[in-house]
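Troubleshooting log. The previous run stalled partway through. Resubmitting the same two chains, unchanged.
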Amino acid sequence: NAGVTQTPKFQVLKTGQSMTLQCAQDMNHEYMSWYRQDPGMGLRLIHYSVGAGITDQGEVPNGYNVSRSTTEDFPLRLLSAAPSQTSVYFCASSSTFWGEDEAFFGQGTRLTVV
Amino acid sequence: AQSVTQPDIHITVSEGASLELRCNYSYGATPYLFWYVQSPGQGLQLLLKYFSGDTLVQGIKGFEAEFKRSQSSFNLRKPSVHWSDAAEYFCAVGGVTGGGNKLTFGTGTQLKVEL
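Second attempt completed without errors. Output:
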C-alpha cells in the first residue's frame, strides 16, 4: 500500500527555472492538497483540489500552479523559481472534504532555489 | 477564520518523564482536531483525532489528548516519554470555512528527549 508518493525527494533549482513536483495517491481520495513547511511557520496550504478538474487556492498560492486531470495525480508547478520558494513541500490526500478525516502525507520534497 | 496556536516552540524532557504539549484553537463550531508527529526527514503521521463524543482520545504510541471546549484546547499528553518520541508535533484543526474545506496547522513544537 503506497499511500501518497512524492517525487523528487530533493531538488536544487536556479532562480527563474521552472519545475513540477509530482504527487500520486492510490487510495482513491477526492481531496488532495499541497503544503509548504518553513521553520517557525508550520505547514501552510498552497493549493487544494476537491476532485478531478477542480482546484482552488490556499493561503500562499503565488508562484505556484496546479491541475488535477485524474483522481490519483496532483502535480505542483513552480513557474519561475525564486529563493523565497526554498522550502519543504508536502502533498496530502484525504477521503472527505470537511476536514473530518485523517490526511495522509507524502514524504516531502526538499527544494532549494539558488 | 480557524487558527491553531502552539505556544511552545521547543520542549525538553527527560526520558521517562511525563509530557504535555499545548494546543489552542479558534473555530466557530465544533472542530475536528488532530495531532500529527513528524520525525526528522519524514512526512507527517497521525497520532490521534477528535471529532465528537468522549473528550479524552487515545492515539498511537501511548499518546492521548483531551478536548476542553471551555478552554478551546486540545493538549497532547504522554505519561512516560521514550527517546524515540523526539520529533516535531503539530496540532491541526479541520473544518469548513468561508474558503472551503481546510486543515489548519499550528507552528509545531519540537520535542527533545534527554537520556
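Takeaways: The two ends of chain A are 36 Å apart (CA to CA). Chain A has a mean pLDDT of 92.
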